Structures are given as structure tokens and as C-alpha cells.
Amino acid sequence: MQGMPPKTSAPNQAPENLTQILSDIVDAPVECDGFARLAHSRLTSAGIDHRVMRGVLVSCDNPNRGISPHFWLELDSGLVIDYRARMWLGPHQEVPHGVFTPDAFSHWRYEGEEVSIGETPEWVLEILMINPRDYLDDQDSAHARKS
User: Fold this and answer.
1) Residue 7 included in any domain
2) Is the peptide bond before 69 cis (omega within 30 degrees of 0)?
3) pLDDT digits (tens, 9 = 90+) for 13-54
4) 122-146 tens-digit pLDDT
5) CA proximity to 74, closest of 104, 101, 95, 106
6) Rounded CA gap, 92 and 95, in Å?
7) Exposure b/e, 108-128, CB count within 10 A at least 16 = b
8) Which of 24, 84, 87, 96 is the Cys-Cys partner for 105 at CB 3.0 to 4.6 Å?
9) Does some domain include residue 3?
10) How far is the C-alpha of 120 from the C-alpha of 41, rounded, in Å?
11) Residue 99: which of 77, 68, 119 has the closest Cα?
12) How far apart are CA 60 and CA 130, in angstroms?
């Protein structure tokens, strides 16, 4: 539009910085809804505007291949954040993963609506980050030390 300044992204919305902000939650033992909650909390704390989305992710090549329901995040810049599609669709390079523009995975279509998930208490976020294997390993180590 004439007279409107060009839309620019804030410096903290660069993909490299997003990757850093999300780096310690990428491997959290949660599914897409839990990851959306964790990422929402991180992005909110970092002051990054975003939307939590709920809907479907469908292959354009095979409409029978997809996930429903599915949660992901979108930024005003057009970037998508989805670290859980491969959990259900397999660890294939063509399946969306990470922080990306939709055209990076043009054979997939996200359809959904914004949802409000509210603020999650810090103690709940900490629980979501616990890997049960780590807890069991710690218990086994403690038991071995007592023996």
C-alpha cells in the first residue's frame, strides 16, 4: 500500500535467534500440544508476537497422509514453528520440521485456527521438560550408590 512503511521483523524474530530461544525445548518429551505450550511460553517471555494454531497438517500429494488434530505456531513474519510433525509422519526430510517458511515444505498444507492457551505456570513447564528416562536413570544411579 502506498504511504505505508514496509513491514519489518524485529531483530529478535530472526530464525537463528528463534532456534536459540527454542533450543532447550526441542527435545522435550511432549507431543505437539505440549510443545506449543512450551514454545508459547518462551516466545512470550522473549517478546515475540506469535499465534498458537490448532488444525491439520496434510500432504498435498496424498490427502490421506496427515495429522489431525495438530498444533503449531505462526509468526507475523510468515514463519512457522513445528517441531512435532515428524513425531507422527516419520523422520523424513520432506516432512515439515523446525522454524521455516511454508514454501520450504510446499508439498504440505497447514489448515487451522488460532487458539488461546493462556499462561502456563512455571512449575507445569518444568514438569513438561522432564524426560522420564533421565528420572529413571537418576533413580537407578541412586539405588546403585546405596547398594
Assistant:
1) no
2) yes
3) 455 689 899 999 999 999 999 999 999 999 999 999 999 999
4) 888 888 888 877 767 665 555 555 6
5) 101
6) 6
7) bebebeeeeeeeeeeeebeeb
8) 96
9) no
10) 7
11) 77
12) 35
Query: Which cell is 23 given?
Result: 533450543
Distance of CA 3 to the CA centre of its chain: 36
5 within domain boundaries: no
**Length of the chain, please?**
147
Number of domains in the chain: 1
CB within 8 Å of 33: residues ≥ 6 apart: 71
> Are 27 and 65 spatial neighbours (Cβ–Cβ below 8 Å)?
no
3-class secondary-structure state, position 13: helix
Q: pTM of the predicted model, to two decimals?
A: 0.79
CA dist 30 and 118 (Å) reads 18
Q: What cell does 59 get?
A: 500432504
Grid cell at residue 19: 532456534
